[in-house]
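Weekly structure sync, notes
Attendees: PL, DS, HV (note-taker this week)

Item 1: L-gulonolactone oxidase
DS walked through the input record. Source organism listed as Pleurodeles waltl. Sequence as pasted into the shared doc:
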Amino acid sequence: MVLGRSGFKFQNWAQTYGSNPELFFQPTTAEEVKEILDLARQRSKRVKVVGGGHSPSDIVCTDDYMIKMDKMNKVLKVDKKVKQVTVEAGILLSDLNEELTKHGLALSNLGAVSEVAAAGVIGTGTHNTGIQHGILSTQVTSLTMMTASGDILECSESNNAELFQACRLHLGSLGVVLTVTFQCVSSFKLQEIQFASTLSEVLDNLDTHLHASEYFRFLWFPHTENVCVLYQDPTDKPPASSSSWFWDSAVGYYLLELLLWISTFLPNLVPLINRFFFWLLFATRIERVGLSYKIFNYDCRFKQHVQDWSIPIEKTKDALLELKAWLEMNPKVVAHYPVEVRFTRGDDILLSPCYKRDSCYMNIIMYRPYGKDVPLQEYWSEYEAIMKKVGGRPHWAKAHTCVRRDFEKMYPGFLKFCSIREKLDPTGMFLNSYLEKVFY
Ligand SMILES: Cc1cc2nc3c(=O)[nH]c(=O)nc-3n(C[C@H](O)[C@H](O)[C@H](O)COP(=O)(O)OP(=O)(O)OC[C@H]3O[C@@H](n4cnc5c(N)ncnc54)[C@H](O)[C@@H]3O)c2cc1C
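Item 1 (cont.): predicted structure, written out as tokens:
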């Protein structure tokens, strides 16, 4: 019999959202998950599953029952021949990366952090960069899920194919994901080359950059022309890194946080900070080599608010230049660095922001130095307006103000997803206030 704990307080990684679930569960088996769902059904409670708790929104918040999957975190099967791994859904990618390395395998792409769970990353459409690569959900070849009725469904391209295109980006709204099978590749090293450029150079030569490096992204420093380009490519070179505590932590973290905190009293400092840090940390060419996941993952520094919309790739230049021009016309609005620009291959997952189109993700950020909130409303609204104008779709885990009528316009498969969800969860057991805005 699985016991729920009362008094648990949930907070997401950025400490921007939290909730006090009535009961908190950490099941160890599918049978225990079923007991929790049975109890929830008897008592008319809603249920939210949390993975790594990294989503910078209220997508996992609930006042009813919360299930944390961290005790269902085993690697169940490694098939070296076809390079596939089946895991329990609560495994953190940080553990999976190490386990895969032991078997000579790796995930072909990862987001910035790996302290996130297998079902969590696919739940919100986590992505990285690389125009030959899709969002992380495209690496999933099959999964199993317990629905609100307690039944276990299995889906893949050949089995329950329509359900599979919904489950690969599920928003935590279809059931409790129990296991996930990922297509892997042979373990590989990456060489990262970082070099300085300008916004006009990168935008004018976007196609060249996209083809020059398998995992190309760039960081734009708002209020300036400065850009840091990052190329990451497979290599056989031996591991090498020039990282230093002084530059990475003392300067890149502690000094930045202090200066951004000071700038909350003197906002005019922000453009200078952006310029100064570009010059300090990003203006010189830096190379490093390491195991793929060690290069994919990077330090996201301190707590922050973020928005990250995907737009059709051909709109990249227009959208960025419009944002830059708007900031220039509104000098009272300040924007922290970086605006991170990444590229992703289109797919056919119903709620994927890259559904049927190659995409550019444009991530904007406002830090919360020492936990202090900074004004962001004007910047946030203008960014959203530009993203909507160019046909954007928001990242499901990050901030946005969209509601059902927006999603109906954005996603050709939205109504299909809704009907699958309504069939699997007719009483709305897996809904919360975030999902009500999406589906009602
Ligand atoms: C520092 C930082 C860096 C980030 N970098 C990136 C990045 O590079 N690229 C990017 O795209 N995003 C990025 N994100 C966002 C992050 O990848 C997503 O929020 C991701 O969903 C987090 O995974 P998680 O395990 O923490 O999920 P959670 O936030 O715990 O959950 C996400 C969703 O999955 C559901 N869920 C989780 N487990 C299950 C389960 N077993 N069954 C059913 N539903 C489940 C939850 O209910 C929720 O709907 C970053 C976030 C942070 C804080």
